[in-house]
TrEMBL record:
The modification 4-aspartylphosphate is found at residue 52. GO terms for biological process: phosphorelay signal transduction system; regulation of DNA-templated transcription. This is Two component transcriptional regulator, LuxR family. Pfam families: GerE, Response_reg. Keywords: DNA-binding, Phosphoprotein, Transcription, Transcription regulation. One of its GO terms (molecular function) is DNA binding. Residues 143-213 form the HTH luxR-type domain. It comes from Lentzea albida. InterPro entries: CheY-like_superfamily, NreC/VraR/RcsB-like_REC, Sig_transdc_resp-reg_C-effctor, Sig_transdc_resp-reg_receiver, Tscrpt_reg_LuxR_C, WalR-like.
Amino acid sequence: MRVVIAEDSVLLREGVQRLLADEGIETVAAVENGDGLLDAVTEHKPDLCVVDVRMPPTFTDEGLRAAIECRRRYPGLPVLVLSQYVEERYAVELLAGGASGVGYLLKERVADVKEFVDAVRRVADGGTSIDHEVITQLMVRSKKSPVDKLTPREREVLGLMAQGLSNTAIAAALVVSDGAVEKHVGNIFAKLGLEPSNSEHRRVRAVLAYLDS
């Protein structure tokens, strides 16, 4: 796997690069701003971009906007956002802009190496990995949403789906049977107007449906 990292903090940039190298993942470019990210993606055509949200010159949302532009230029390019914050407007635009290969994790997750590496591989493979706290903040941004139709348990299941967990993993996390999870997933699809299915594409669409509501 070939990765481009966009992060203005030298320590974090080098730390992520070394962490990925330990897992056999090659960093083909490590840049510190949005323009550098666009140039690196154009030059290297990576398998994944790991992108900070706030970078020079204004330290607001340059990284996230650059990630969205990368996805526009190269549809389907997997992007994993790392941030200390949830930038609501552009986060929704990124996550709702495609049904595969997107992730949004808070930087504290990098401390859990296994969880971070799992997210990197999942997003690079076209899946999704969205931090539970990100999901929580985006869910409350609107008072009316299709997610309002869901029961509390169905919301839990949908939140775990957003993190990229399989039905079996969700069952283990909630201490319920696989059959119970399958039933909840079917109900979620029905309430969000999606045909029941266990395919990855439908699962991602279910997550994106309420993020874009």
